[in-house]
Each structure stands twice: as C-alpha cells, then as structure tokens.
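Task card 7
Instruction: Convert sequence to structure tokens.
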Amino acid sequence: MRSGRPSYTLFELLLVLAVLVILAALAYPSLSKARGGYALREAVDQVRTAWAEARTHAVNEGQPYRFAVVPGQGNFRIAPDAAAYWSGGDLPPVNDPSNRPLVHEGALPHGIRFNLDGAGAPPGGDTSQ
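Output:
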C-alpha cells in the first residue's frame, strides 16, 4: 500500500505540455495582430502629437512649418518651411531665445513605415510587419 502524495507519470506531464503548446499556437495569431494594432495606434499618436506641437509653434511664430517623411521607412521631420532648415547646413540664428523654432525628427515604432499612394503596400492594406 502506498502512502504520501500521488505523483504524475511522464506521459501525463507530456500530455499537459502538449495541450499548452497547442493553446499557445492558437492564441499567437490574435496576440500578434493586437500587438500590430497597438504599434499602429502608437505611431498615429506620435505623428499627431508632433503635428500639434508644430502647429502651436507655427501660430506663435507666424510662419509655416513643413512635415516630411522618408517613403517606405518610419522617419519623419518637422521644421519651419524655410530653406535654412532643409538645406542640411547650419541652422539660422534665433531672434527670440525664449521662443525657438521647432525642429523635430522622429521615427515610428519598429515595423511601422510611411507608405505613399499605396505603393508597396502588403496585401490587405496592413502597414505593419
């Protein structure tokens, strides 16, 4: 007669492990899609925030701002719409040190990129990878 705790056989442990692997495999696609949706929302919020900040600066400074992207990548730049800010040289001197022009360079989350005119979009319109 046995005394003490009952134990599990190797077969039972492997069976439970197999069930867990199958459940994980079934859940992975939906978790991956949810993560992609979250990254896309994060990218949209990031660009909207940069636009709102640039708009505030444009109104305060009384000058237009330009938004530029690198097609097929996730890089963007916002700066005053003047040649000095886009020529790649030194930035011009600031007249009002308390109200400096905004020069914002950013990158979207990994796997999210700008797509112009739908060129190169994966089937189904999904922009994440």
